[in-house]
Structure to design on (167 residues):
């Protein structure tokens, strides 16, 4: 298996790799998320996404994107570390960072066969559903029932930390 860092690509390098994959008739799946404080729900989501095709690309929200979406105290874990964690998973072929609030630009550029989202969505609530539909990209929900979120874990840690600091 190649080193994890070689699986984190720029958009241009990733586009070239996906062209090769298409020539080999591989089914490409794109999953995305912040993956701040990686947890079992993330793992199940990515394993489920990988099962939908031959090659899994994971778009990880940059620090800027996470801050814009979740507020100034996020992310807890920096983008480089989050990308390395995701790239280290056996089910993940490539990782790309993105600054936008949605993966619509990546869907247009990469044209995967499937856009996989976690079970905190339905096909009708996926923000990029219309873009996917217009491009002929299948939208799939995977990963099993939602068990937790990074926000839930962070909230719990903050509550416990605050309780521990009380006299």
């Amino acid at each position: 298996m190649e080193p994890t860092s070689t699986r984190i690509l720029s958009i241009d390098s990733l586009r070239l790799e996906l062209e090769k994959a298409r020539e080999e008739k591989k089914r490409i799946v794109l999953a995305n998320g912040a993956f701040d404080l990686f947890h079992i729900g993330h793992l199940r989501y990515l394993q489920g996404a990988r099962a939908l095709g031959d090659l899994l690309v994971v778009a990880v929200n940059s620090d800027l994107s996470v801050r814009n979406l979740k507020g100034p105290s996020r992310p807890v874990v920096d983008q480089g570390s989050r990308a390395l964690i995701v790239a280290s998973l056996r089910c993940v072929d490539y990782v790309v960072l993105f600054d936008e609030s949605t993966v619509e630009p990546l869907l247009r550029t990469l044209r995967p066969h499937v856009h996989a989202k976690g079970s905190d969505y339905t096909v009708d609530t996926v923000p990029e559903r219309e873009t996917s539909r217009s491009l002929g990209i299948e939208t799939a929900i995977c990963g099993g029932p939602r068990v937790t979120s990074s926000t839930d874990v962070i909230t719990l840690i903050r509550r416990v930390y605050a309780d521990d600091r009380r006299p």
Notes: The radius of gyration is 16 Å. The mean pLDDT is 92.
